[in-house]
Amino acid sequence: MDTTIAAIATPLAMGGVGMIRISGPESYEIAGKVFSPVSGKDVRQQKGYTALFGHIHDRGRTVDEAVALFFRAPHSYTGEDVVELSCHGGVAVLREVLRCVLDAGAVMAGPGEFSKRAVLGGKMTLTQAEGVMELISAKTRQGVAAALSAMDGRLYRTTSAIKQSLLEVAAQMAAYVDYPDEDIPDLEGQVLGKTLGLAEDRLAALLDSFDTGKMLQQGIETAIVGRPNVGKSTLMNLLAGCDKSIVTQIPGTTRDVVEEVVELGEVVLRLADTAGLRETDDPVERIGVERSVQKLDRAALILALFDYSTPLAGEDWELLEKIAGRPAVVVVNKTDLPCAIDLDELREKVPQVVLMQASSGQGLEELQQAIYTATALGHLDMDSGVLVGERQRQSAVQALAAVRGARQALQMGMTYDAVAVDIDAAVEALSELTGESASQQVIDTVFANFCVGK
Ligand code: GDP
Ligand code: ZN
Question: Cross-referenced NCBIfam families, in alphabetical order (predicted)?
Fold first, then answer.
């Protein structure tokens, strides 16, 4: 970390302002070479948390006007001396200014290198850095909230608390093993089991939060299924009509004819009217059916439609079998028509049954509520922090497996030494999660996924 790094920190696009961030021991020196404040002040003597207006120049030629912001170590994002040059936001001008800064002695920053320095310099934890990345890539309001719970340290505190409880169990067992004759309060296997059980529950809840966080971040992949003519397209249009603007707000949305991204209350649904494809003629139909099966398998939420005015048919039963045990809402449509369906039978199969009239929108609120319940969004506890990223999930999975192993060992009456092996493994996995004992390779991998300039 004795090099001074620089990168364009704002997106490379046309904009009012663009910013070059410089971090490292030579930041002030390098800024002094390329930036001249109109006040004539000496940049190298500048205090932290100050700003100067001036010009960027390249061997006597003015490149741009700029405002320079100064941060003194350790009071900066990276914890190092940092200078941020805010210039005009054109692609060419930003590249030009960056080139000047590199010519003056800075090294091009790698992906996420500023955040990596912040972690290595103790300014934030690995989980917080991952929260930063998640925040940048969040596309929904709820995704932002989940990212913040990692970024502001809630996730770190929860993980640390679990780890602490495991360390206490380990310490008690070690004391018992080492000094069996001393006056150590009786080690009740039950008490240990209880602590382990609590750790297990908290880890399981964290893992749940991963799936939920992902749903919130990207929108819930939702499949609308049901036999032809039950009203799938009508429901799709109704939902899409709730807030069409979201479609343009989320970049990279597949504007497939049968996919829509809609906001329903607090949640974002990525809707696929799968069986819309089924209704087309032959060769396409086969592909369509395959595609809807895939969609159905992959969906995080299934909206299964049935016709209120028609008795359940063979295809309906097949569908009910398929969605059993999955996060699903049964929508019984066309309630304006006379009833011919056995609702009790449906309710036996799937807990969430909503009656509605897709053509008029009646029942939409109930549908929204049922979606919350089916996806467990209603139970999401962001106060404990939300796991973000596959790396964190992997560590949590390992920790959970180890805690379960420890509990089993304890129940089977194995020696405390044997139980301790599993507890150690759990503690190790949690330390990796928070980054306290993450290897250099893990850290490098995490930051390789960051964008340059963050
Ligand atoms: P899909 O084949 O499942 O996509 O069904 P559609 O959405 O194309 O609807 C089939 C027919 O049912 C259309 O004529 C709709 O107007 C009608 N429909 C949809 N929802 C309702 C409803 O709530 N009540 C009544 N009476 N008709 C509906
Ligand atoms: Zn349709």
Answer: mnmE_trmE_thdF, small_GTP
Q: Is the dihedral of CA 387, 390, 395, 400 positive or negative?
A: positive
* Nearest-ligand number for the alpha carbon of 237: 1
Known binding-site positions for Mg(2+): 233, 254
More confident of the two residues 237 and 402: 402
- Write down the pTM of the prediction: 0.67
Question: Which residue ranges have their beta carbon within 6 Å of ligand 1?
Answer: 226, 228-234, 276, 279, 333-334, 336-337, 357-359
Nearest CA to ligand 1 atom 27: 334
Site to substitute for ligand 1 among 359, 360, 366, 367, most atoms within 8 A of C-beta: 359
- CATH class of the domain defined by 226-379: alpha beta
138-214+384-438 belongs to CATH 1.20.120.430: yes
For residue 280, CA distances in Å to 255, 306, 314 come to 19, 20, 21
CB 396 within 8 A of CB 164: no
What confidence score (pLDDT) does residue 256 get? 38
pLDDT at 390 over 80: yes
ipTM tops 0.85: yes
Range(s) of the chain covered by CATH 1.20.120.430? 138-214+384-438
Distance CA 399, CA 387 (A): 13
In the chain, CATH 3.30.1360.120 covers 5-125
pLDDT at 150 over 90: no
Which CATH architecture fits 5-125? 2-Layer Sandwich (3.30)
Atom of ligand 1 nearest to the CA of 279: 2
Q: pLDDT (tens digit, 9 = 90+) per residue, 267-286?
A: 888 887 554 434 445 565 55
Q: What residue's CA is closest to ligand 1, atom 6? A: 231
Q: What is the pLDDT of residue 268?
A: 83
State the pLDDT confidence band at 187, using cuts at 50, 70 and 90.
Answer: low
